[in-house]
Amino acid sequence: MNAVRDTGLIFHNHVRQNLRNPTWVIILVVQPLLYLVLFGPLLENLGAAYAGGVDPWLVFTPGMILMIAIFGSAFAGFGMVVELRSGVIERERVTPASRTALLLGRVAKDVLVLLMQSLLLVAIAVLAFGVRPSPAGLALTLLLIALVGAGFASASYMLALRTRSEGGMASVLNSITVPLLLLSGILLPMTLAPGWLEGISRANPLSYTVDAIRALFAGEFAASEVAVGSAVTVVVAVLLAVAGARTFRRDNA
Amino acid sequence: MITARNLARTFTTRSGPVEAVRGVDIDVAEGEIVGLLGPNGAGKTTTLRMLTTLLGATGGEATVAGHDLRRDPRGVRSSIGYVAQGGASLDEAVVIEELVLQARLFGLSKTAALVNAEELVTTFGLRDLRQRACKQLSGGQRRRVDISLGLVHRPRLIFLDEPTTGLDPQSRTNLWEHIRKLRAGGVTIVLTTHYLDEADALCDRVLVMDQGTIVAEGSPDELKQRITGDIVTIELAGTEHVDLHDEHTLHDDTFDEGAQPGRPKLHSRTDDVVQVARAAVDVRSTLVEHHRIHVTVDRGDQSIIPLLRALDAAGINIAAITMKRPSLDDVFLTVTGRSLSDAEQDVAPAAA
Question: Tell me, what's the ipTM?
């Protein structure tokens, strides 16, 4: 129970800090809007090649949610570099609070932010572009998105503890997130890809996640993509969270 | 409060293992203020981080506040306070909120946390600033917040890593007062410092550290008594331009005098001073540090005039001659062969 309480304390503290920072609120609102307004319309003219006959927005919107999940969470560690430098992390590590809780409280805050961004993005898509996702599918999508966000945020904090510098983090993040994005089929479906490229993309766990949430959005709950994608997402998220917690527990991290 | 035996930490680096702390024994009794004194890189911070469970020891064992360091790190953490060298708060964070959060992470209830936090802001003169963001505070105020953060759960043992580094003299004296008050309230304090006056002013006992070992130990007075007599320091004239590489601090007979042709033979001149001094007065010991010669004599007041006459007669130009009672700086100089300020320059801060 103590670990839950400590997680709550850290979570509450970080939510409070975020709310105090107005630039954060603006970014939260504007970023999803830009994706939809400046990129989405390009796809409408691709027609069947993009979405195979269904509403292209039904394919594009879940992809954008996943993209926000990847980039928003992967950059969470930058905040921790600042915390490491200011001595906050060390101050918390010298308390009897569970070190896993110190990590999870932060991850929980990141997931909350991500879910709010996702909901905002969906709301805009529904209101402005007439997307009609399956309600149950949307709920399950948000669950998977929360897992992806938790996994990426944990990995990002792990990276922050290892590199302890913005420069080091930026170079590692860029070399990982860009290939992950390109090889996931988030921007354009991998059905458009030549065989070799699609083959490589199958090694990227995110390609399964994006397939699953596209099926969920369309209300195809029985599709094999849903089961496979959900399983892959859970496994990867748990592995990343455990790795992050282990790094946080190390005595001299 | 603390018993440490043979505590050691070796870091693995690309250029091989670095022994930051090489097996130190530390005993701290309840209610003491103990200072770890030494230059940057001496191993003070590493020792403190080991005793506070932030860094695993690679050798030795310790009991801190009744808990075994290896077997019960959480027990240690719940019984101690720690104030790190570089501060402990985010710029944007609000003073009172930080204090309450920290207390709650130590398991206090919301009410108890708030009571302790309010009490500390009053004690440390931060009452009017408690709703401010930390970045709005002055250096001294912010340091007091750091120390409050280490005290908010009312530990009986607190570790302060260089508590006054970077503070202006007034804030420094102010903080010393607070630390003395803590001791008066029964809190055991272990602090590190590279300021001799701080160790002298605050500490019941000083552990002098150099290159990962404890080289001397005792109360400031005991340590000073190890150097009996007064120290007369003779400073040679016309040596300001001497290359830094000549700054070998120890009197060393193997020094190669021919190595710097055309330069003043500093070594031979300091040698002359030592000879002249020994002939003129009753010298206990001498120590040559660059262009300064420290001569230890029984009675400094009675030695200066004969020394001056003899040096003058020998045709040696001196820039200054001073006499003082031994300080902790002299203790450091005696036990390590270097003055504290020189030792600071020698060591890469990365090893700290």
Answer: 0.89
